[in-house]
Amino acid sequence: MTTDQAAQLLKQFRAGAISLEHTLGAFQSAPVAELGFAAVDTHRALRKGFPEVIFGAGKTPEQVVRIATKLAEQKQPVLVTRITPLHARAIRRKFKHAVHHVEARCVTIAKPPLPKRPGIIAILCAGTSDIPVAEEAAITADIMGNRVERLFDVGVAGLHRLLNRFAQIQQANVLVVVAGMEGALPSVVAGLVAKPVIAVPTSIGYGASFGGIAALLGMLNSCGSGVTVVNIDNGFGAGYAAAQINALCSPP
Amino acid sequence: MTTDQAAQLLKQFRAGAISLEHTLGAFQSAPVAELGFAAVDTHRALRKGFPEVIFGAGKTPEQVVRIATKLAEQKQPVLVTRITPLHARAIRRKFKHAVHHVEARCVTIAKPPLPKRPGIIAILCAGTSDIPVAEEAAITADIMGNRVERLFDVGVAGLHRLLNRFAQIQQANVLVVVAGMEGALPSVVAGLVAKPVIAVPTSIGYGASFGGIAALLGMLNSCGSGVTVVNIDNGFGAGYAAAQINALCSPP
Amino acid sequence: MTTDQAAQLLKQFRAGAISLEHTLGAFQSAPVAELGFAAVDTHRALRKGFPEVIFGAGKTPEQVVRIATKLAEQKQPVLVTRITPLHARAIRRKFKHAVHHVEARCVTIAKPPLPKRPGIIAILCAGTSDIPVAEEAAITADIMGNRVERLFDVGVAGLHRLLNRFAQIQQANVLVVVAGMEGALPSVVAGLVAKPVIAVPTSIGYGASFGGIAALLGMLNSCGSGVTVVNIDNGFGAGYAAAQINALCSPP
Amino acid sequence: MTTDQAAQLLKQFRAGAISLEHTLGAFQSAPVAELGFAAVDTHRALRKGFPEVIFGAGKTPEQVVRIATKLAEQKQPVLVTRITPLHARAIRRKFKHAVHHVEARCVTIAKPPLPKRPGIIAILCAGTSDIPVAEEAAITADIMGNRVERLFDVGVAGLHRLLNRFAQIQQANVLVVVAGMEGALPSVVAGLVAKPVIAVPTSIGYGASFGGIAALLGMLNSCGSGVTVVNIDNGFGAGYAAAQINALCSPP
Amino acid sequence: MTTDQAAQLLKQFRAGAISLEHTLGAFQSAPVAELGFAAVDTHRALRKGFPEVIFGAGKTPEQVVRIATKLAEQKQPVLVTRITPLHARAIRRKFKHAVHHVEARCVTIAKPPLPKRPGIIAILCAGTSDIPVAEEAAITADIMGNRVERLFDVGVAGLHRLLNRFAQIQQANVLVVVAGMEGALPSVVAGLVAKPVIAVPTSIGYGASFGGIAALLGMLNSCGSGVTVVNIDNGFGAGYAAAQINALCSPP
Amino acid sequence: MTTDQAAQLLKQFRAGAISLEHTLGAFQSAPVAELGFAAVDTHRALRKGFPEVIFGAGKTPEQVVRIATKLAEQKQPVLVTRITPLHARAIRRKFKHAVHHVEARCVTIAKPPLPKRPGIIAILCAGTSDIPVAEEAAITADIMGNRVERLFDVGVAGLHRLLNRFAQIQQANVLVVVAGMEGALPSVVAGLVAKPVIAVPTSIGYGASFGGIAALLGMLNSCGSGVTVVNIDNGFGAGYAAAQINALCSPP
Amino acid sequence: MTTDQAAQLLKQFRAGAISLEHTLGAFQSAPVAELGFAAVDTHRALRKGFPEVIFGAGKTPEQVVRIATKLAEQKQPVLVTRITPLHARAIRRKFKHAVHHVEARCVTIAKPPLPKRPGIIAILCAGTSDIPVAEEAAITADIMGNRVERLFDVGVAGLHRLLNRFAQIQQANVLVVVAGMEGALPSVVAGLVAKPVIAVPTSIGYGASFGGIAALLGMLNSCGSGVTVVNIDNGFGAGYAAAQINALCSPP
Amino acid sequence: MTTDQAAQLLKQFRAGAISLEHTLGAFQSAPVAELGFAAVDTHRALRKGFPEVIFGAGKTPEQVVRIATKLAEQKQPVLVTRITPLHARAIRRKFKHAVHHVEARCVTIAKPPLPKRPGIIAILCAGTSDIPVAEEAAITADIMGNRVERLFDVGVAGLHRLLNRFAQIQQANVLVVVAGMEGALPSVVAGLVAKPVIAVPTSIGYGASFGGIAALLGMLNSCGSGVTVVNIDNGFGAGYAAAQINALCSPP
Q1: Which end of chain B has the least Cβ crowding within 10 Å, N or C?
Q2: Residues near C177 by Cβ (< 8 Å), separated by ≥ 6?
Q3: Do chains C and D touch by CB distance (3+ pairs < 8 Å)?
Q4: Interface ipTM above 0.90
Q5: A157 touches chain H (CB under 8 A)
Q6: How far apart are CA H34 and CA E26, in angstroms?
Q7: Closest residue to E218, CB basis, from D191, D214, D225
């Protein structure tokens, strides 16, 4: 129930158009609407260009298509993450202009695309094996209306690869830094910039990497101030948080 | 070496004022300055009001006083975290206007304080035991020139405490959400706002909380989009990251 | 050996109908019966409608059919959990009226079904991926003679979904709350009701969810009073415990 | 806001006694009351005898006394858990009839005590070292208006100690089973009864008991149906859940 | 080099039949033989009937056949553990009288079998799923010349199953107790007998059983005196240790 | 209730000396005695010299003295483990001939000592820091009537120290091998003998020894056949198991 | 930029051949070259025979071939590790003289091979299952220009196998010791030599070996001085470190 | 027994000076000496200047003094690690020229000091809190006759601190790199040099550093080739290994 609707209700009640019981019931039977946050959430999404996102893993292709259809009907840009080729095929049968980002395991439906905000989100990754996670972050930030700069394969074992990109790193508003194995890259990057660094540990590695735990712990213990961390392989979450930050500082 | 200094050097060399060896040596003996990032970092700190921070734990009171003195000489605001009363006493003997934030285990020296940016950083915590960590975040964000709103003891076991503060939560630019035990608060908060949420797990709890691991894992697996996480009990890190984000969107 | 049987035995002995050795042997050769608990257990199962349950995992289809046949001969309702389609097919070849609950990975044979107790067991789950575990709990509680109310996909990321179902939640005698990832739902539910909440962590999630450890720890550390927890993915155990509780308070 | 208060408000509004803005504001500024659950919670506590509980750990004696005073003013029974002798002394200075349960590390203020429900809650523990946790469960259940039967030191290493108490075990409505080390007692008890068993792992043990992890895992993996588990050393939680269950089946 | 051989060497040297260098070299070039333990080991195996054992996992069928052939040539009984059907088939092609123990995943070649020692080794297991590990222990103890008594499916959830076998349990010299899930059976058994109990955790279970860790920890923390533990699923190790113990007390 | 006692009871009943109710009650009120295992246990302890053992940790000096007194009254040898000097002093005030084994943290009261069995139990330990645990094993085995041979500080880093004691190692019936850090000693010892080896991991070490986990895992994964393992620092358990084994093979 | 190139640049600037902006830009746009380490690294590789190494896992056959081609063009020896047969086939189609080391899962292209340094690197492994990891170390050390001595299947369960190779062990400059299960071999070897021992834990084992954690912890806690450790199954890393050490002490 | 002693023995035997039994016994009673490795070890220590090292932790001051005295009598340099001030005082009472290295928690007695080898061992550490561990490494390497270069507080958060020391880093033969928290420094250093890097994780950090596990895992997963790792806080082990490597390449 919006403020307008509530005022309308009260006026009708005062006018005798509706009974005390009915008015009371309307307030009591709709606690969520009274709080207003669900509706606001939806409106904000439309207004600010933050699309609803479908987590594809564990959903059938049919389920995904059905949800995507509902979102597309509302002219919202659609992002489906963690999909298999089966999901992609089913979506593209329905939406001809849907794009399958193979490496990022995503599908996007965004026609026309959202206008891009001025600020840049830099996505760095340490090695080639980290690219799928980095791409998930990049696609997420991109569809949410952000300009994305990719700086891949700049791990700390060859520091010069990173330092060569120093100017680009400096210009970004937010930095998403993706790394597996020992996950040292975010610490080094955070030492070079005064911008928020979102660290994404990946499950790349073997033995005592324990599926990304080594990288995760490394990032949580980063000596670089201002580093925050998301779950292992959670490129989407990092891209989403980066977009939220960039939205704050670069109004469209 | 700044660009200006480098140009000056080259001009002197061309003018014959300095030798080839000397010029070459200047470039080769100062690789850091040549890269430019260390110097820039320092300048930015002065210009943007992000002070150097002294991690007090493991340092003697004397060491802390010495570093603080050096910073204070440069008219920089000083923040010392993770201190004992011994550190506080030593600092206050030297700096009469230093403030000892007992609950946050911090000392600040900031006279005059930095002007405050317009945006608000909200600091929420789930229970009274989480307040020291929340205060560390608040003091950090405050000394870095941000307006801070404290919303303490709003854990999910009594959801109404949180919903009562809904308006305040909505107005913040960034939210730092501190919680121990199962660490569920950031998920609920992230469902209510479209702003960046920085989650801070605390070591509050017993048994299977394992010193904060339960809260940490809960936050890393948050179903709320846009949640990023810092180390257990790392109020400073969260306050610092929140300040970096707020600095992006609210230029002084 | 029941008390009646024991008294009968002693009387026969005194009457000289049976020898000292035989009497002594009867007491000594049946220690379990003398304790009375095995027999009582069986009788109670028949009388109160708590069926024997077959854990299908690690048993061959033939073994499962054989045990089910034995139970069915005693007119007991049969529940087989953790089955594969192969088990289901083998059982249905033998029992035409057996029902294969595909999502819950269960088979039930209950003709006629047990009469339902008056109280309601509510089964909540946070996301669609948690439904198989929630269904296992629901099928278990149902076949044990309970009315079950399903409230699925009411996770804390969109709190209004949960609050919309507030009335239904309040009416239940017992609540089984199923959630993966950070497992925050039981804490929020326990804050809303004064009834026993049985929390079921699921293995849904990735990275630092560690196959359900994050959800398990979250639930064990729940700040909501009255929350008890079962093993990861143990829908059956939760449904069984809920039925035991409901049986206490709603005599048939 | 109660239903009565809301109706009153609407009537005043219709009568013109208060403005539209004021009425609208009253509904919007009190979302919790509009939802109705917080108030209901409080009323239920008074009506059903489930007192508010103060977790003493991490609170100062003064804080605890202040909260206790507030509760006592409302004639509610008071339970303070995890206290030190300092807390106890402070409380007893203020409340002469407060009782310090030394072994359970609790204080209770309950004058007059709540009337007892008919059903029995049995509290079992495996060894003498587990008694403090078992006592915390017992005190909790007792102050919440339940009759408690203590069966201590009945661990599985000497099975006859347990079997000797068979009759008492059978009579309870709910069983709280407390054990450290390998935590095997709940499995054995659950095999003997058809009532809900709440298992409490304790931190008793050394080496590979890892502060209660061994017992916790043992209980989560119990082969006994109907066993639910609480956090390590969480006697309060188990007593509270047991009281909630017993309240369902034994109306006062 | 045996003592006899060494004495012979010294006599030849004194007799001048061999040179100083040769004698010195013989002692220096055979450090192992000089220690005497390798040779003794081999002899003891032949004399006492403890066969060499081939760990099949990670070896090709050809490798296993080759080692088995070498052992068989020395008229030693052969045990191959952790095999696949492929291994079994390859061995049986070569050794017609080899026996494939399908459930225990072993092959034995023992014609004629070793004479049996008088004492009995009891092998208990908690559930049907634990039988493969229990069988591995049984086959191992059997081929090493021991009489084995199998007591399967006697887990603690139905205590009467175990107590019914009380007499058999009492008669054994050594008890191997196999259990998964919470691994409580060894504690209960150790409380009933004064004989060595060797506990074998199995990987049977799911969720928080963590592949046998729960059972392993339970057994290591057993409150039953005299319980020793082997690796998860290590039926062979338990059978071997039991045979070593039984060999001490029942000379052939 | 022994068989004789039961027969006596039945005869009295037949003779009319006792009533049906009384007879029935006797059988029903003493389920343990009817099973016969508790009593037998007690008698066996007296007959075979296996004393009851008091675990001192977590018991008050008074409690320990009271239990010790009860055992001493029955002329049983008394062993109290894991004591503090306070316990020792309290015991020695009461029992003048009690012996405080400072290093092993034990007290023994055994006057006269049990006659020693012929077989030898060898107690080896890797380093000097492991001696307290090794001594606990030694004192336990000794008071249970066994001859103990101590071989301390024979860790694998200096293999010759172990090989020098080869003859002694060979002569033992059972070997208790105590080691911290990497816990490699049991593997090496088990390769040298054909006797049961009981491995005891200790908490000696730092960093990645994780309080004995490294040693525990090493021993559980030992490549030496016939190695069984007890809990970290559980010298008592190893000494007890060794005594049980030695009792089998060396009748007094 | 080398020193020569920098001097040349400065001279041209002084001669007026290039502008101030260009000169300044050259220094500022090539920070890495100014530091000189990237180039030096490459040159050192050629000069000292340390080849670049391609980690095959997670790369497509095409990617691997492309990188290998680039390295081969520079006449550098090529090592590709962690490959599948698909990678090997693709490489050998392009490079006829490439060698596929099946057991070590490596391909090498080294024609002509590097001249061998005089010192020997000994590669020991405990069991046959550890050979693939040991071979990876051996191939790595070999292609880097070292003489390698293989001592396989010398685990501590049969100590004489190791002691028999004592002379060979003594002669090596560096020892790579590979072991799974309890990982005890490096401790024993380090007790026998005064040379650097590089320990490689393998994932060989089952149950509580936890995929190599047991061996890893054992090696990190080794009581043998001078043992350093690499990641689980990281034969390449050990071979590489051994080659670096041997290069120090045996100049070609 | 040396070769000379053995030859002498045989000659005496041939000459009839000693009996067959005596000769045989001499060989059999001294297996270690016959192997020759213990003696060789001792001689090598004297000859190459590698002193015996006393691990102080867990030893009484008296024990330490006694062992130190024995070593000092043999004119060997003495190193005692992990001491308390009590140990230091006891040693210095006896040895006036002993040096107490307070920060490194070591005592050394080396008069005259060993001559230094030409090569340099660089000891780097990331932060001031890591200095005690770094000093332990430095003192160890120093007393073993090596020139040590200390480069402290050069962590990756301020990369320029490290790059400023580039020349010194390049000149070292071996590098010991000490770091806590995320432990990223060894990866960065290994990318800059072609020399062996020994990484030492420290327990510096809090929360998810888990007492050094984060740093340990980071180092084990280092993407820098040639990094080997020692136990958490094991400065001694790293210094020792570095000395062994430097001894290979820089003969005195």
Answers
A1: C
A2: C124, C125, C185, C186, C189, C197, C198, C199, C200
A3: yes
A4: no
A5: yes
A6: 11
A7: D214
